[in-house]
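Bug report (template v2)

What were you trying to do?
Predict the complex of my protein with uridine-5'-diphosphate.

What happened?
Run completed; filing so the output is reviewed.

Input:
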Amino acid sequence: MNDTDIINPTSKRVLVTGGAGFLGSHLCDRLVEAGHDVLCIDNYFTGRRGNVSHLLDAPNFELMRHDVTFPLYVEVDEIYNLACPASPIHYQHDPVQTTKTSVHGAINMLGLAKRLDAKIMQASTSEVYGDPDIHPQPETYWGNVNPIGMRSCYDEGKRCAETLFFDYHRQHKLRIKVARIFNTYGPRMHPHDGRVVSNFIMQALKNEDITIFGDGQQTRSFCYCDELVEAFIRLMETSDDVTGPINTGNPGEFSMLELAQTVIELTGTKSKIVHKPLPQDDPKQRQPDIALAKKHLNWEPKVPLREGLVPTIAYFENLVKAGIA
Ligand code: NAD
Ligand code: UDP
């Protein structure tokens, strides 16, 4: 029995790896609010204690420094495996560690799930599709990924993690869920993570040049964080035959030029757009086919980019005003 059983008999013991990161912290919020007993682990590589500090006084929340590349011995009912740097500059900073985090991290968390017969969800990514030549991308598409490029530590690490999840499912009958997440944004993104939404907003707030890589015609589809977390929770609650992979993302597709213009308009910045070289293997287009998510999760994002940018800009504005970013 855990502490929260007294309050809520339906509560579960839930482990969130990477729980002090952007998405992990929003997921912890939701799980704590639902009355579950939440164990958040993080090595703080890209996450921050500040993202979950408001939860520290909750009796059903526990924070632990731990690196998922090392085994973990705890008792839980469900595991959300989010630990992994997500922004290209962060995951390329130490590419060997990025692959270890995805692969050794998956092995350790799957081993834990096997011992406990716990349900486990993997935060996979649209990067498994690489630079896609099918548009929009359905889950049946196997992808177009460079195995030896700058993005490979992340793309191939996540692909191998998916392989491990499905082999544990076939070989050990583990209850798995795999979400392929498309670009997601919102408050608590790291202000210096170099991802396009945080970068453009930070540049705009400081009246610095807005750096578009390449001609800005490449596209991404942006989902607001709260809606993505809702998809995680719904996916975890699906019946055991629903394993995924399931695309989770907002099909609204924008070019980087359109995103820059929207950020300029919403912030009222004096910033000018400048063009910089396109990084190696930068995917030209991204849009999720979310038919499976609609069917199995009854889920479809509703927050348009323009609307979700408003609280996101407000979050970064506060960081700038407080001198934190
Ligand atoms: P994030 O960088 O904010 O969060 C990742 C968290 O994992 C951080 O708190 C970091 O400190 C932690 N971490 C990294 N390596 C670790 C390790 N070895 N052991 C323990 N903790 C470790 O990124 P995010 O955007 O919140 O992404 C969360 C997950 O979702 C990641 O797995 C990412 O690959 C996946 N994802 C995110 C997006 C997106 O657009 N946000 C898109 C696709 C996939
Ligand atoms: N990008 C950009 N300017 C920036 C940061 C990123 O034009 O300051 C582009 C980047 O080249 C890519 C897109 O924005 O085409 C999304 O980049 P991000 O790093 O956010 O995510 P990912 O490429 O992993 O989808």
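What did the reviewer find?
Residues 12-185+224-250+283-301 form a domain with the Rossmann fold fold (CATH 3.40.50.720). Residues 95-116 form the longest helix (22 residues).
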